[in-house]
Amino acid sequence: MSIRTSFAWAFSEQTLQQVIQLAAAVIIARLLAPDEMGIFALAVSAAAMLTAVRDFGVGNYLIREPDLTMGKVRSAFGAMLVFSWSLGLILVLGRDAIAELYGRPEIADVMGLLSLSFFVAPFGQPATALLTREMRFGTLHGIGLTAVSIGSTLSVGLAYAGYSYYALAWGLLTTMSLRAVLSMIAYRRYALMWPSFTHWRDITRFGGLLSLTSLIGAANNEGMRFVLGWFTSPASLAQFHRAAQVPDLFRQGIFAPVARVLTPAWSEDIRNGRPIGAAAEKLVALNTVLVWPVFLALSFVAAPFITLVFGPQWEAAGRIFPWVLLAQGIVAALPQPEQVLVPHGLVGRAFLVRAAAATVSLGSAIYGASLGLEAFAISRVVAAFFLIALVFLAIHRLIDFHAWRFGPRYLRSAGVAVLAALPAAAFHFSGQESMNLLDLAALVAACGLLWLLGIFITRHFVWGELLLVARKGLGS
User: Fold this and answer.
1) Are 133 and 190 in contact (CB under 8 A)?
2) What is the pLDDT of residue 227?
3) Which residue of 201, 297, 440, 466 is most buried, as measured by CB atoms within 10 A?
4) Residue 64, phi-psi category: left (phi > 0), alpha (psi -120 to 50), beta (remainder)
């Protein structure tokens, strides 16, 4: 499968999943109170650091390994089985202590449900990794979309039936379980195999450090939520989570499919001695021209947008929304460190980047949370600037970064962002404090048309890609 086709399948899967999840979130936000959402968010945050290291780097090991045999696949399965089940047991045994820390016993029940995913995930991971290695993104598209659709529908149904935060936990567990089962069905050869530990040393050397890197990243992302919940309340944590949800969904809708395709593609390029600088340059241009215009436009209509989509009880999320958008937009300026460093085998350098970034992130989060919700949101901008500086230092030689090449890419994306955001800016300066669905639809249409005009005027490479897609769609 070609890179363009792989990107098309991966973007389609991620986009459709995000649309389904956002639609479910909009409905659930009106069925559950902020405090109920906060209980689930705290339970997920407590489990997330273990979730981040659950696969023990097995997926990337199977994707990168040049001489892959059945013995190595079985050893990878055995390593993940032991590691994931051990983490699941830790989560089960520690759930009461974490619940007592917050003085909310309900957290323990939610964590008990979430721990079940640790006992299910290992069975589907080898098949998923090998489908990715073989660039079978059409198959992965069907698996992901089916699992998310059923899991999100279950969450909405249970929330409507009055199951409170349990609705979210059951939906997440169902999604995870379906992914594992459907992956095994799609790749039956690796569905029910006996575990092995023949190659455990190689897997441990690679996966151990990569798992530590993932753990640091999870501590950076989830630890700050833990800090906010500790200094304030579950309701404040829910407000921040709601403000971060839209940019998270949008940004991950871009970064996640890109990472899924580039990891196997760039690993092969590097093994064959081919440079990735030109590809990284295009990746930066794609990320910024998609992320910056949307986030700039949303920052002008932050409060009206949040209250329209999620309801008036989320007004505080609307106030901090611009700061969250700015932090997320900064991170889009360069590839994620793992996208470049892992294919090069520089897992240790990725660990150092994440460790240093987490130190500053958690330190600023503690200070910000002690001052209040808005100060905490501002602290995310500080952490984002520090992270992007570290990423630049770690990867600029590997992607052959030069200002005269990357600078015009940034300027084009910034120009497109300013042009596309003009309708939202006009709405903001008109003094309107609320919007309806018609207003939102008109803004989306106007901003979208100006975005197209912007990439045409600036001769952004995305314009050429869109023309190519249009010609293929028309059969010309």
Assistant:
1) no
2) 79
3) 297
4) alpha
Number of H helices, E strands in the chain: 20, 0
Average pLDDT by stretches of 10, the chain with 476 residues: 68 80 83 80 75 72 76 84 86 84 81 86 84 81 90 91 86 89 84 76 71 70 74 78 81 69 71 79 88 93 88 85 93 86 80 89 90 89 94 91 89 94 92 85 94 91 75 59
Q: What gap in Å lies between CA 77 and CA 58, rounded to an integer?
A: 8
Question: What tokens appear for 369 in the block?
Answer: 């949370």
Tokens of 324: 């969250």
pTM (two decimals): 0.70
pLDDT for 132 equals 81
What is the Cα–Cα distance from 29 to 33, expressed in whole angstroms?
7
Q: Which of 88, 91, 64, 93 is nearest to 76 (CA)?
A: 64
d(CA 418, CA 82): 51
Find out whether 321 and 298 touch, Cβ atoms under 8 Å.
yes
Q: Tell me the domain boundaries of the chain.
A: 1-198, 223-476
Cα–Cα distance for residue pair 315/310, rounded to 1 Å: 9
The amino acid that residue 317 corresponds to is A
User: Which among 216, 225, 270, 266 has a CA at the least distance from the CA of 245?
Assistant: 225
The answer to whether 298 and 246 are in contact (CB under 8 A) is: yes
CB 417 within 8 A of CB 296: yes
**Residue the block writes with tokens 């006009």:** 426
Tokens encoding 176: 């995870």
Residue closest to 26 by CA, chosen among 231, 308, 294, 253: 308
CA atoms of 4 and 24, how far apart (whole Å): 30
